[in-house]
Amino acid sequence: NLQPAWWKEAVIYQIYPRSFKDTNGDGVGDLRGIIQQLDYIKSLGVNAIWLNPIYQSPNDDNGYDISDYRQIGKEYGSMADFDEMLAGMHQRGIKLFMDIVINHSSDEHEWFKQSRSSRDNPYRDYYHWWPAEKGKPPHRYSFFDENNDAWKYDKQTDSYYLHYFSVKQPDLNWGNPKLRHELYDMMKFWAKKGVDGFRLDAFQFVYKDPTFPEFPRDYDKTTDGVIKYHGMGPRVHDYLRELNDEVLTPFNIAAVAEGAGSTFEDAHSLVDAERKELDIAYHFEGMNIGNSLDGYKLSDFKNVYDRWDKSFAEKGWLSIFLANHDVARMVSKFGNDDPAYRVASSKLLNTFLLTMRGTIFCYYGDELGMTNIDMPDISDYKDIAAINGYKAATVHGKDMQRFMLELNLLSRDNARTPMQWDNSKHAGFTDGKPWLSANPNYPLINAAKQQDEKDSVLNYFRQLTQLRSENPVLVYGAYDDWLPQDEQLYVYSRELDDQLWLIALNFSDKSLVTPLQGHAVEKLVLNNLPDNPVAGSELKLSPYQAVILKLK
Ligand code: TEU
Ligand code: CA
């Protein structure tokens, strides 16, 4: 695992294009907005970007429902804008990961229009159909259906089609080699443009047994159950090897496996180098922590990272992230967004991200400490998962007051509010009406303000990325958790050759002391607070203090 690779050293900045920067006043972020901000992105010290989907789409699921894989969505701009954006990234030494959504397409894709038109259409078996004369198909779970039913009856051909996500996201039939090769050709189209990496969306779900056997009753009562029964079917690896041979290896593309099955073995089977499938496993276990109004136990949080790091110490490669467009803002979920601690705890979480082993994913706005938005009313929500989740909860007679509190804390809309550029109207995101309101705290939290403040989260973030780029120990070094059981402190070392670094993070609002286990401090490398933590053979940590030290 010491074999160097650019994608192992990458610090990836994730941009949710709808919400990043609008340049034509339609309230939707666009590619020209990204072009305009490339110098800002470069100034962060990141060296790659992951862009959520920017293809043509009716936007039932904000671009994850693609109606033409080779066109840029009109609201995002043109292909000329894309080419200019990619060239601008490459000029600045920034690589681009594109989101490849090939478990499903939009129902407005030409293939699906053909497919649903008649039972003998040549595109019929690009998707999964179940003829109604066979009765109702065996139950399958849908993430985004108000009844969680993944089969939708389609009158035109008196058949049901399968959709693991929304009704407007029919699942593609990977059993059909013609479909697979169409998708490889599409990926080659982007590879030829010089794209450096792909994130394969929901790929673990692509295999479906065409006989659709019954799954055990209640298999879908937990997300883990759904992933176990829908994920990592028998031919997923054949498909990946084919995809790798056709596209990834010939075009030298790095690939992220979004979703990594149910076990360490599943994850290894996707990314171990000798298998020649994908490169970076993006597992969701860290996202299972903190999904409750009651907070989380730090030992549970650490346990996830300890176990995964251990399992990947010798081979395979992981992602490290605390947020993305599908979850809440990291400081509101894992830190403390109370005004007293927001800045310190944002810096602390960024310290964690940039000192762990793996490829680092930073979500736009987290370099500023952007927080969740308060949306008490269901009519404020734009996300299909929130809206259908609300309907489903109503149907199931859930405690709706509690449901709304949970939604307020956890909904995906929290992470999709406009980037907070400055203190002008709508946070400087748009001159028009933003598709989703800016968080009202933008006068307090914005890039322009933080640019000028020496001790801002933004400038601290820049120090972290620089430190990581200059010190391979932070990328490749062995990781050791010194206090796995502690509920307030997260203290771990990174070690490479003769270098031993210590990262000490106080996840609590108390002042705490922790021993250095017989080591002496050679250098205090970075500190998120003015208070000097080094006290002889111990560290004294103030609330939410984060420090990086070199030890002897
Ligand atoms: O999410 C995929 C996804 O949600 C599952 O892979 C995941 O395993 C499950 O939710 C477990 O929590 C991706 C995108 O990130 C998301 O925004 C899209 O809505 C979704 O695919 C459909 O394309
Ligand atoms: Ca726009």
Helical stretch count? 16
Principal-axes shape call? globular
Going by helix content, strand content and strand pairing, the class is alpha/beta
In whole angstroms, the N-to-C terminal distance is 25 Å
* CATH topology heading of the largest domain: TIM Barrel
- The mean pLDDT is 97
CATH class of the largest domain reads Alpha Beta
Question: How many structural domains does the protein architecture include?
Answer: 3
Strand order of the largest sheet: 11-10-9-5-2-1-13-12
- Helix % is 25-40%
Q: Got a strand count?
A: 21
CATH homologous superfamily caption of the largest domain: Glycosidases
CATH architecture of the largest domain: Alpha-Beta Barrel
Sheet having the most strands: 8 strands, parallel
| Radius of gyration from the alpha-carbon trace, in angstroms | 23 Å
Poorly predicted runs of 5 or more residues: none
Strand percentage lies at 15-25%
Bound molecules: 1-O-alpha-D-glucopyranosyl-D-fructose, calcium ion
Pfam families: Alpha-amylase
GO molecular function, one term: alpha-amylase activity
Domain Glycosyl hydrolase family 13 catalytic: 14-416
GO biological process, one term: oligosaccharide catabolic process
